[in-house]
Amino acid sequence: MVLTLTSLLSAPDLASGGVQPNPHQATYILGYSTWWFFFLSNDELLEILSETKDPQRVQPHLKKCFEGINTLEFTAEQEIVAMVSAEKEVVSFSGTIIPADAKGMVEKWLAQVEEQMVQSMKDTCMEAIQAYFSTAKNKWLLDWPGQIVICAECVHWTAEVAQAIEDSTLPDYLRKSNDQIDEMVKMVRGKLSSGARTTMGALIVIDVHAQHLLLHTARDVITKLISIGIKSTQDFNWICQLRYYWREGSVFVAMITTEVMYGFEYLGNSTRLVITPLTDRCYRSG
């Protein structure tokens, strides 16, 4: 017998009415592969499991399971092909999920949703990083999901600043960055969709920081690096910045001696708070 949430909650001793089902205890028995269910109340979990033949009944509870996914996009054949954020941003999956193949095991196809979320974001990020070199910047910024634009932009920013440090051309790169920010400001003042405007606003916040203090906004960072006369990418004033690298088919985020793999969890297309020196200190001590 395959151990599933449905089978656990419909066991004979539970069905007889003598014992009240405890969905969260069932998730502990199954292990942490069903960690999303811990964010649901017992009533919500029972509602999902009582409608195993209709995957659409999971839709109202998705936001509690996956922070960035508001709904899933189904085809007429009840196949899942994309995820949709609360801001109505649609990100297509790299593959197709067929809930019917799970034979009523909600936890099984939800695990596939998580896998597709991560893989699709990784695939899209790789395509965006590659397209950066062959597409006009103004068009590139609008061609990809907001989270991917920010991640890919950070990858290229890290590479370009490192190259400028090695070539001693940081002042030239600062002028280039200022021009790019001015172009983005012009785009924001023009006609944009609400999603594109949110993405541009978040990117401007990051870029302005990166030019000033090398992590407040891109511009803040570069300005600081120039003022201290940095000459090497091994200088502490550079490695203490939040840097993004694309290698081995994934994105790695580094700061000082710490390096972690980017998780590619979909977060939607949200706004960004202004980055301050205190933000940097929190990053470094976190």
TrEMBL record:
InterPro entries, alphabetized: AAA_6, DHC, Dynein_heavy_linker, Dynein_linker_3
Gene Ontology terms describing biological process: microtubule-based movement
Domain annotation Dynein heavy chain hydrolytic ATP-binding dynein motor region: ranges: 262-284
MF-aspect GO terms: ATP binding; dynein intermediate chain binding; dynein light intermediate chain binding
Keywords: Cell projection, Coiled coil, Cytoplasm, Cytoskeleton, Dynein, Nucleotide-binding, Signal
Any single Gene Ontology cellular-component annotation: dynein complex
Compartment(s) where it occurs, according to its Swiss-Prot or TrEMBL record: Cell projection; Cytoplasm, Cytoskeleton
Chief location category: other
Leader sequence residues: 1-17
Segments forming domain Dynein heavy chain linker: 37-127
Name of the protein: Dynein heavy chain
Organism listed in the record: Timema shepardi (Walking stick)
